[in-house]
């Protein structure tokens, strides 16, 4: 069976025949369409919506926001920032379990460095953390971090800081390309204390 046929059948199973046909027309003729208030005009956005539906997540529009109801809470971004939802932890909870599942956070305090838009902070609360200190230096992501904390009524359990953290006497280089920031540490001098910067 070809990959295109597999993709079509996957779409039919997750989103229905109507959506599969609409996406086929979009790809052939370049005509965008709207699904639950979300303008679908690219294959990347379509695949994201299909993956979210496949994993059983509810996706809906609330005003100018796209909201994804995950296993650990609701994550929202503005419509024009839909690509921020491409970060794996939102729609691959098994990735969180693989990355953090061995950490016993039950009734503990977690420091989430690089909290992004709040997906991992919500995950740690879901896993039983008593409190999460979430550090996110990028203002745009920090704005969504605050929104998602409030959306899930977690202001008393997730404390957000618009700061970054890295090792003392080192330099952090951040790239804003892609769905999230990518960072690389320069350990020209090794030291193990953290410093915070706005």
What report would you give on this structure?
It is a single chain. This protein has about 200 residues and is an alpha+beta fold. The chain folds into two domains: about 55 residues, no CATH class; about 140 residues, Rossmann fold, CATH 3.40.50. The protein has seven helices and twelve strands. The radius of gyration is 19 Å and the shape is elongated.
Features:
198 residues; Rossmann fold; disordered C terminus; 2 domains; three-stranded antiparallel beta sheet; 28% strand; alpha+beta
Mind telling me which CATH architecture of the largest domain this is? 3-Layer(aba) Sandwich
**CATH top level label of the largest domain:** Alpha Beta
**Unreliable stretches:** 183-198
Count every beta strand, where a strand is a DSSP E run of 2 or more residues. Answer: 12
Instruction: Please list the strands of the largest sheet in the order they lie side by side.
Output: 3-4-5
Q: Main sheet?
A: 3 strands, antiparallel
Oligomeric state, counting identical vs distinct chains: single chain
What is the beta-strand fraction? 25-35%
Q: Helical stretch count?
A: 7
Shape: elongated
Amino- and carboxy-terminal Cα gap: 52 Å
CATH topology tier name of the largest domain:
Rossmann fold
- Domain module tally: 2
Q: Give, in order, the helices and strands.
A: HHEEHEEEHHEHEHEEEEE
- The helix content is 25-40%
Mean pLDDT: 83
């Amino acid at each position: 069976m070809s990959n295109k046929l597999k993709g079509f059948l996957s779409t039919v199973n997750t989103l229905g025949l109507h959506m599969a046909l609409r996406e086929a027309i979009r790809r052939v003729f370049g005509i965008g369409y709207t699904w639950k208030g979300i303008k679908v005009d690219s294959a990347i956005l379509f695949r994201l919506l299909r993956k979210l539906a496949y994993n059983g997540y509810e996706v809906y529009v609330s005003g100018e926001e796209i909201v994804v109801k995950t296993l650990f809470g609701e994550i929202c971004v503005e419509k024009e920032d839909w690509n921020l939802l491409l970060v794996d932890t939102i729609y691959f909870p098994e990735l969180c379990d693989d990355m953090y599942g061995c950490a016993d956070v039950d009734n503990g305090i977690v420091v989430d460095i690089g909290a992004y838009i709040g997906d991992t902070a919500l995950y740690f609360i879901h896993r039983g953390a008593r409190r999460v200190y979430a550090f996110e230096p990028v203002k745009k992501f920090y704005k969504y971090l605050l929104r998602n904390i409030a959306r899930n009524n977690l202001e008393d359990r997730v404390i957000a800081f618009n700061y970054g953290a890295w090792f003392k006497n080192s330099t952090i280089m951040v790239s804003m390309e892609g769905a999230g920031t990518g960072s690389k540490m320069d350990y020209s001098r090794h030291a193990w204390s953290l410093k915070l910067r706005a």
